Amino acid sequence: MDEAQALQSLFFLDPQSSARVCHTSKSGVLAKAATNALLWDLQMSRAFGLSSADAQKGPGCKVCESDDGTAVGSARAFGLWYRAASDIGVQCVLSRQFQASSQCHLPAKWIELWHRMRKWLSNHAPEVLDTLQPPATSSAIDSLNQMVGMETPPAVVGLWRICDGQIAHMEPYLAQELQMPTGEHWSRGLLGGYVAYDHCISTILLPLRSALKLTARLRENIDVLNNEHPTKVAFACAHSAKKILLVDVKDGRVYAFRREEPFLQLAVPSPNAHFAKPGARVQLQGLKSKPALNGKCGTLVAYVPGRSRWQCKMDDGSGITLIKDDNIAPENPDEYPFVQQDDWLQRWFEEYLRRLEQGVYIKMPLRPEEAPATAGICLFPTCGEWVSKCVTRGVQVTGSCIYMPEHLQGWTYSISFRLVENEAERGYKTCQLYRRQWQIKEDGGEPDIVNGEGVVGFFPILADGGWLLNRESDPNRQYSGSDRFMSGEFRYQSFSGRSASMSGWFGGSLTFMPGTLRNQTGQPFQVRLEPFRLMVPEFVY
After folding, report:
1. N or C: which end of the chain has fewer CB within 10 A?
2. What does the alpha-carbon distance between residue 13 and residue 18 come to, in Å, rounded to a whole number?
3. pTM for the full predicted model
4. CB atoms within 10 A of CB 465
């Protein structure tokens, strides 16, 4: 048979068998046919659901064409995708995919994201990597489809088809119900955590069956979830269930669960973000409680983060009404072309991964006074627009905050101190924190002033390379063990309350004493805490 006939025969082979044919006699008809771009474009579509153009980008958008940009490029592209899938433990599935429907092919985007995630974890948090599970079983995916009453889109279910969450330690009462282990390593949540006082969060990506159990429990106890949100599934929660994240399997949008109305807060940028701004002209749609408003128009006034709704001034003179994002559309749809919106979960996951890769989130003790036992992925950002940093007389102060949808306070903030420069430049060897003055300002309002001694019961004594732990710096003995030198910066976390606008600034100053409070070596001096933003971010983690 000629090469065209051989190619037609190879179309019936699975990818591995096609690859084996490539290694037969190079001058043979079959070997030549097995390097044809059409064959590997077809195999790419069967195995990963990718078009030839998308496939040529390779995992992570690496260009993988051959020098002439033809046949070998397609085979090489498949090889890169196959190796990426193999690296994350899903190679055994590929041989069964070539006869399957498009719903069964391996989701290429999730392969890429999990490949990057595993690489980051391997380098920075191997103990979290050890908690990741193999792909979810088909029976678990069937159970998901039955619960939501629909075929879950690949962009959503692909999360579990590549990695079935974590087996990580949870509080005993929750672990038993979700069939998870208990133990002391609560800080190993894949999706990060934070601690302030007794509010302790480490968010675990749940195995699919555990996610379904938690969803069922939420529906039993909260009528609005059961009656109005049948396609929303809890996919992650803190080890203590204080924080829960849900995904709408219909469109992939991610929500954070709140313990008061409204129970769900969008954790990804609004699908209407491209047009929904103050002053935008909108038409109302899909309202069940106020059906008479459907089809009527108005003007957006302002977004109310605490209610997760827009203020809309109606054209009919009825005044301002509060409207959810889901219930507004552009008055003139032609100005805003339709955008595919079933990949919000992927976007949410990818943004989190980007922040890990860029060092915004790093591994550190979630509870500083219990280091290193509480080491985990910390959601207090260390760089970027969310962080303030300032040096005054050799003391560097860094501040940042995390929005907490699950907590009445609204934000937890982190402040850290360390010495920079050298003793001669600073004019002192050590210094001790004496007082603080915070200025918390809501946008458009006057600042609230908070004065006090120390910070949350600490009076850290800063020294080159770290700080001194003793009765003077820790009078309440919040750190266990004997007096010692603590390397690295002093860091603590506390709360800042919600405001009407849910938008403002946190800044202030601190008073330090050269030497220590008991043995002063100079006059007290003030150190600036550069203001950092208090706001509800577009992406909530």
Report:
1. N
2. 6
3. 0.87
4. 12
